[in-house]
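User: Assemble these into one structure.

Assistant: Restating your components, then the assembled model:
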Amino acid sequence: MRHLDGVICGFLIVFSVVICWASGRLGIGTFQKPGPGFLPFLCSSILALLAIVMLIRDFATLRYEKGRKVFFSKGSFRRQLLVVAALVCYSLLLRIVGFLITSSLLIAILLLAFDWDLKRWWRYLIFGSLVSSACFLLFSKWLQVQLPVGTFG
Amino acid sequence: MESLGSVILGFQISLQPVNIAYCFIGVLIGTLIGVLPGIGPVGAMAILLPTTFHLSPISSLIMLAGIYYGSMYGGSTTSILVNIPGEAASVVTCLDGYQMARQGKAGRALGISAFGSFIAGTVSVVMLMAFAYPLSRAALRFGPPEYFSLVVLGLILVSYLSHSSFIKSMIMATLGLVLSFCGLDMVSGQVRFTCNVDELLEGVGIAPLVMGLFGIGEILYNLEDTSGRSIFKTHVKGILPSLKDWADSAGPISRGTVLGFLLGILPGGGAILASFVSYVVEKRVSRHPETFGEGAIQGVAGPEAANNAASSGAFIPLLTLGLPSNVVMAVLYSGLLIHGLTPGPLLLKEHPDVFWGIITSMYVGNVMLLILNLPLIGLWIRLLSVPFRLLFPLIIMFCLIGVYSVNNSVVDIGLMILFGVFGYIARKGDFECAPLVLAFVLGPMLEQAMRQSLMMSNGSFAIFLLRPISGVCLAMGLCLLIISIVSHRKRRAC
């Protein structure tokens, strides 16, 4: 079975049910005067139906598929997880620590995620500092984009 | 005579020094984006969209449009030299372009690609001028039921023409519609699906959505394979095509131009479909189809002309009907809205300067691209050797800054990360994200049109069937649904 399709369909069905419920609470209204929940309810119902159809179709073809398709490899999953974790931390710390420090650290971690060579950490930090400084000059000074300076700014 | 006056007005605007400068910036960035893998024109336009807030509407749209058709030019360079398409529409160019490079004809391939793109781009701008005016006038007769049915047909067509399965694309389109309902309801003022997050009162932003799906998602996908790519070591010489090359390419360029332009108008059509169809057509009409895939110049000239012509054709539904036909036009649609301009039939009437300024700037942009691409091929080749591990942190930084700069909100960054992860998982599961973005952009228009139609008809859905244009659109949508189900059953039976 294409397990990933099954997982995605399952998520979509749950998501659709939640939206249907929330739309009902908003008020579906009548055909003459549709309420704010009318079209969301309709669309989420269609979404649930499509997800169920796809799930049934995948179960029906189960017997024709041999072997298990590998969707995520261990090596790349580690890298991707590090990138996502770094981005989440970045968003949480950006306003507190400021753009320059968080961006330098983020770029260093991103380079580490790609190379996976801890011995070169100092090169990553230098590159990260240079790039974040250049971005700060370009966007904040030239393009007048407001970037957070943080608590230490 | 009125059209001629409008064209002259357009050139007066597009040839202003500031607009020439922004056109140049747009096509340069577009070519760069097309050459470098890792981010496509959609992501680049989304990143630059917030920086255009301080510019005039015409200048910002000229620049954003330049990124789009510029990327069509740039994508062919990597296809020919590296056998990796820099942009999705250049996939087909890999088939024969790279083979030509292996035979020492890289220069001729690059040359015919640039000239073919220029000719197609120029002719299609002329066709755009010819079609836009009468179509805008016809579109004034469209009411809410027609717009509702057009949007429904457009979404079904986008799903039908996408690479992934029809049902998966329909799922993504429906999901996009659901996402578009987040925020304040325009009619009742009620808050919908914000999960008590104040930043979501205005809805999910287009920037976090697009940058997440096409920027962060693309990066996560590229992290699967961190091995380097090698450029075919060949000295690029003789970029001017010979007389024989012109003789062999004239037909493909002409056919590609017309085909690409018409396919660009279709929702879901666009440059990718145009290049594929052109390749198939050229192989069919060729006297030597066995040479395709072995370095046939027709296999480069036709698709490259088609994808450029399609990028011009795609402007027609956007500027005349106010309906973006693909995800790039959806970003441009957002750009127009941000600047207080409503794309559609009234755009020509109320803002002829914007309308004609954008169209004529495309001609100026095509000239710039021809001048940029041929002499600077050496520079683009050197750029290809920049390791991806240095590029991708830059792309992520630009995405983060671009998203943050819209509302100075970290919630937008969080949304971008969420959509990025979703976009990556969707790609692994072969769910295409383009229908989602298109539906997201069209969702508010669909809802408004539906509500107005039901109020007009006192709750009767028959209004969508009884009005001729609306009825025809819905009938076509139903036919596509039936064709898709029947063809799926036939494939299963086999």
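Residues 1 and 63 of chain A are 8 Å apart (CA to CA).
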